[in-house]
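Section 5.1 Outputs to date
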Amino acid sequence: MSEDSTYYCQLDNGIRLVHRQTISPVSCLGLMVGAGTRDENPKENGIAHFVEHAVFKGTTSLTSRQIINRIENVGCDLNAYTTKEETTFYASTLTTYYERALRLITDMVFRPSFPAEELRKERLVIYDEIESYNDSPSELIYDDFENLIFREHPLHSPVLGEPKTLRWLTGEKLHRFMCDAYNTDAMVFFSLSSLPFSKVKRLAEKHLGDSPYHCRTFQRQPPTGYRPAEAVFHKHTHQTHCMLGGLAYPVGHTDQLGLYLLNNILGGAGMNSLLNLAVREKNGLVYTIESNYTPLSDTGYWSVYFASEENNKERCLALVNKQLQRLIDKPMSPVTLRKYQRQLLGQMAIMAENGENNALSMAKQVLYQNVAPVWQTAYRKIEQLTPADLFRIANECYRPSSLSLLQYC
């Protein structure tokens, strides 16, 4: 047990369990699997995301309609998502139905049936999802930017896949992908609930413990040889969409929290971010401008995104570069830093009240760092950051010579 009632253990089959005890009548629980787009065969791009959809379409004991009824009839919210590195299945439910949700998630992940007719229909759904995504430049640009900076590495592949690869995916291929990548030593069962840890562990052993130990036999290769690049795609959109950025620290790096703080200062959620003040508030050039930091298991990247009128694009880019240079040229004062630290700590405290975000963040830290997170430790580390720390991080990550730029015109 940690100082904030977070518990951690490992089942005999290698599945890790992390549980945070709460006083809420609602529980959030799920299974995070360290299998994503980067683990695919390039000829089967999109299979990780297809699996995420397809497990909802039936198990060896339940039809797709029965899956829906089992969860919806008690007001439970069942969901899933796929990223470049993991696939997550989770539920938010009244604690009364905790075991029902756990049993259903376990059945879907370990005993999917992949009926051929259901796969045919779900393939059409994903085709439509791809078209919808392609119609949203503010979302699509993130995939294209990852393609630009990671190039031939598996991290460049789109999560949704492409129709030309999806059309050949069969139930047999989905089963094979799960057999290869859904390894018990790369799974985390996470739980946020008022149930005591002893009961959560007992339920996990009952429903997850009978799955045999299945060790991962492949090893991910980190991307190497990054070279800054520029690309212009002609999308015929009303606005010009731009994204610039570069590589950053992976999950667990000693400067991860420092870059989180620096990113929040540059273009985070607050209206007082440097980019929002300079580009939107002062000059009225954009509606949306933001910066992001995405740490991955063995690399990471940061980015700045904005959309503007074509005739304002160069001015916006100049203002963005000016704010980056400002962070590179001179350390901020201790008083200014303290203001930003208070802001981030407040934002983190509010986010921690969101059970779903809390649970997913907790699971990801266990998956990649093998430790149960203690929020107080993160708060202390942020409070201990100095102007010199952020100045050094800015010079490591924001150097003009290391920037890549993608434009939709």
